[in-house]
Records
---
Amino acid sequence: MKTSYHSVCAWTFNAGKGGFTPPDARPSWDSDELSTVGMIKLIKNKIAPKLPDHIKLGFEMHYDYEYNEKNAKEVADALVQNGIALAMATPGAHRHFGYGGICSPDPSERKEAGEYGERAVNIAYDVLKKAWDKDVPPCFVIWNGSFGYDLASVGVRNMYNYLKQGIADLCKIEQKKGGEMYIAIEPKPNEGHPAMLLPTVASAIVLWKKLGEEGISLAKKGVNKEFGHSEMIGLDIVYDTVEEIDNNMLVHMHVNSQGYNDGIILGGPGKYDIDNGARVNGMNIAVAGLLKQSGFNRWKGHDMQTRAHDTEEQGIDRVIRSILSWDACEQAAAQVNEAELIGYLEKRETAKAEDIMRHAMMNAQKIFDDLYKG
């Protein structure tokens, strides 16, 4: 079977969120005890043995609190020794810059945020490069958690222009390092400001197209497709996928969910970012079918949170279930008779087309059950 690339996110392994949920539900995952290297070993020892051989594992992490100048060599060594690739790196600017980061009206914050992003790229190339998969290079994701504002004014246009310049500068820095990584914008409609720049897939694509007109190469540039972020405002992840593929901008994925589209787990539009793992459902099978058509075979990240009541073992099990659920959706999508499906749609026999997709969903659940049982 063709290799399928799945990555696990460092931030999944937290002791507890705190606030309205317990901060210490998983005491052995306390941040002081479970280092980045410890997470890598946990993935190798607890998650990898539960997965089929055709799945290749990667790891995703933030600069500068999951990888940094002090631990990068140790992290790179651990990735190589455990057979796990660097799948994604991203600057954790939202923890440091509360007034917009690279789009901040404050020039001193813009400068500091730009230098912060440059350090994140440099370490990914200089120290962590030995942990890259030779066939599937990592993605450098620009997340918009700090790209926001809370005041309606003409200054928003200035912020957008600063943002374009900041991303363009980062692309030039990465190009000088070799231009081997993919660079993706991760859209998000809210969190951590009342209003966000780049809230949707379409807005990310528009920004890239504008940067292309202004001289930035769009090779290996695109969108980090995050299902849950689109679901938070009621957008259609299937159509999002069509836009990404049509513009050749699907370069990384976060296959999680808010839960509202499976009829079981609650969540959805208007809710906060719940970060459930991937699930077997019809929309995921449709997306998997589109990916098959497009030839996408890069990293599929499982950007997810364990539930507030989970133990450590339950948290690990949720990651395993997420990976196997998406793999089951991919396998079921590959078995759909697309010609028959399109034929029904052309003849307006939509109930029969629905039957095909429902059968695919039942097939995916059976595949998941078989995979999970090992």
Note: The radius of gyration is 20 Å.
---
Amino acid sequence: MNNMPLLSLKNPLDHPAAHYVHSEFAARRRLCRFLLRTIGFTVLVNLDRVEGLENIPAEGPAILMMNHIGFVDPIILVHVAPREIVPLAKVEAYDYPVVGIFPRLWGVIPVQRDGVDRHAVQMALEVLRAGEILLVAPEGTRGPALQPPREGAVYLASRSGAPIIPVAVENSDGFPTHPFSRRWREPGAKITIGRPFRVRPAYRRARSEQLTQLAEEAMYVIAEMLPSERRGVYADLSKATQEMIEKL
């Protein structure tokens, strides 16, 4: 693995026995950032506004947890974050025509969505132990409004102690597209990064039923950051609790 060419299209995280080594991705990620800066957000994606970047810590592990509206959501976060982040994505993303090259180059963690993907969990925990930032879309699929989440993000937070940083995404649907399209004349994507929170110490080894409540409490944090039409099953904010989480 250490003899792999720097810009090989293979993902070092694909192998079941792989370990996360940041240096293996450095050259690849510089290339990806250059392409995003010069092409992606010049001619393919219209980004209107980013708020709350100061809520991303300058160092140390964290989990960015976002709602998922459009195909480009994780790409936008990779582009705007002041630090490198490591997204988790469904394994099928590797097979997308042309753009499937991007997750391989960047070192996105592939996730099998049927059952518990123990390898993906192991790699995600390794990334956090390395002091880096994960990006997780807990709903596991795209949609115009919030849907019930999977529990992976809060499991990682409860086992690692890493803070969760909520991210609200709006108006990202319809991209990528060329700048002469009608979509570019409409409002562009907006990203709002909220105040971090963490799992309370008493729930650091949360069990199944506790993880369900943790995931619900985390989703309500994102819901509060979104307009009412985007809140979906979390539209009733009066049901929000913070028994198991605390703001930082």
Note: The two ends are 39 Å apart (CA to CA).
---
Amino acid sequence: MASNTPDSERLKTWSFDAFVVGISVAGNGRTFGVALGDGTVRIVDAEAPEPAPITVHNGACLSFAPDATPDAFLSGGDDGKLVRINANGELTTLAETKGKWVEQVTAHAGANVRVYAIGKDAYVLDVKGKKEPRKISHPTTVGGLAINAKGKRLAASHYNGVSLWWLATQDSKPQELDWKGSHLAVTWSPDGDYLITEMQENALHGWRMSDGQHMRMSGYGAKVRSMSFSRRGVVLATGGADTVICWPFSGGGPMGKAPLEFGSGPMNVSDGSPVTAVSCNPKRDVIAAGFANGALVLGNPGVRSVAISGARKAPVTAMAWNAAGDRLLVGDEAGEVVLVDFRE
């Protein structure tokens, strides 16, 4: 990165006047997509003209993710639609269930699948359209979806645990990972050996796939609503506290180990506000974190944190790095979106 403290010329800001539901980077590694609570999506490319609103849903966007194809995104809405948005703004409705909400979406380019969830049911779609959609059901509402890096296993979180499905086997039964409570967002470690969920309570829970070992990560002052593994999977950065809590995942995982943290100290940018969004850089050992008071910092445990300037006051809701790790897009509850450019 050219600079950890970009000047005003390296910050580009837009006001979209609606809650930022999600920010994703397309498979091409360059194009950002921003999903908003008013049902629109903006395509943000630093080399392109100002992003125009694209009306995707007759209602709100509820879920957002990169598509399995390299130049598009997937959006689920409260109008029951799963929509593919091409980088040029072209829309394709992939599925529609009137009167239902599409609350979870994910996709995997290598596996050529898209997955979305409505209530207790998840649907696996073949990108090439050669197979009938596969319906997989769960005991309660799906709280999160995640496909492992190899594209072989789908994790669906729900009340009292997670169900693991083999994507290549149509009639497979799930492996059940049990733990009492409501499990929401779910993520795999880069090596696929750890699976972590955000709980409805102020905690995370996890499993080590190699031996089924449980991991409980607690002590947060607020609910954890964002987590991100570092590029090598060495730490899991999380929100939910007034500093960025980073759990160590080298040498057998975090069991019995104290977490590391950063984001406090002389800057005091949080002013006691909790971290609401985190994103680990895909190329460097740098973590971006946004707070409920709108503050934005870059740092890493054991390294001095740096605040990014800006007039944001609303809670940060979403952020994402591009594939090169030299641009960061951040959005908040008020609809302000800022592109931070670290290129030389």
Note: DSSP finds no helices and 30 strands in the chain.
---
Amino acid sequence: MKRAYKYRFYPTEQQRQELLRTFGCVRLVYNKALEARTTAWSAEQRRVSYADTSAMLTGWKQTDELAFLSEVSSVPLQQCLRHLQRAFAGFFAKRARYPRFKSRKRARQSAEYTRSGFRWRDGQLTLAKMSEPIDIVWSRPLPDGAEPSTVTVSRDAADRWFVSILVETVVPHHAPAGGVVGVDAGITSLLTLSTSEKIINPKHERRERIRLAKAQRCLARKAKGSRNRDKARRKVARIHAHIADRRRDHLHKLTSRLVRENQTIVIEDLNVSGMLRNGGLARAVSDASWSGFRSMLEYKAAWYGHGREVIAVDRWFPSSKMCSACGALADAMPLSVREWTCRCGAAHDRDVNAALNILAAGLAVAACGDGVRPTRR
């Protein structure tokens, strides 16, 4: 299995300038290729392939105006054309929207190097056009005998530099787990398990809201284009990065525990993008990061193997309104109702009851291979 290991590194001033030039050239080539493909389709209804854009890149390098493209490594430039081809393939397959132009103001900038664009020797990584290896902070070791196949260098809005190393490795053996669990996502409690355990929502963004608002007001007062504005922008970005890091760390620990202890995990197929359009819930839903939670669960279940699976039940399944004891449906269940009693006499905690129903529905899906509700067009 191919796995990527991400590390922070600290470039020298010379390396920093070389990487910044590479980022700029990658952005320019991507935008020019996207413009050429868009123009060809709108004017002539003609599709431009990756080979065509690669030939265009060769021509651009031979002009006086764009001769500087030859000063950086050609590998990231070719890779950005492959990324554009993949973006168009996703668009034509209706999996993604139309590719957009890259902006120099974008928070994250990156460049990808394949095997011919770097040297890996004695545990040190040297990128093309650089005379010395980059100073990587090895927060965890690479697998024994692993040889990098792709290296991606990136810089975030907080001016932190990262390198992601893709290697092919054997996933460690993990014994099958015996547990099954249903998971109900929420705001007050981040997760409620069918075992009646409630995991508190840390609300990382709310805890930093005052400091963030102060930094944003300070940014708004700075003159555009000034160095002080750039310093204030980086301060805001560092606060956002601190929030995101803490949130990601919490989700990693939580998902690893769930996958390690359970063979089957059942969750809801939530319409997160729709919830983010709700002005009253958007901030809390974004801070909870339910999409990130589901993504981590799914790829970690694949890593651990041995039949571990993550089942998503239909988003319209009435998990909150259904009694987990008798199966009766309540007429209405406003969000303000946290505890209720069914006409069969069973008293329910809203979230625990929903988690139990989600688990039952997921096990039914696993047993019969059918959906929780009839397929809708």
Note: Residues 179-368 form one domain.
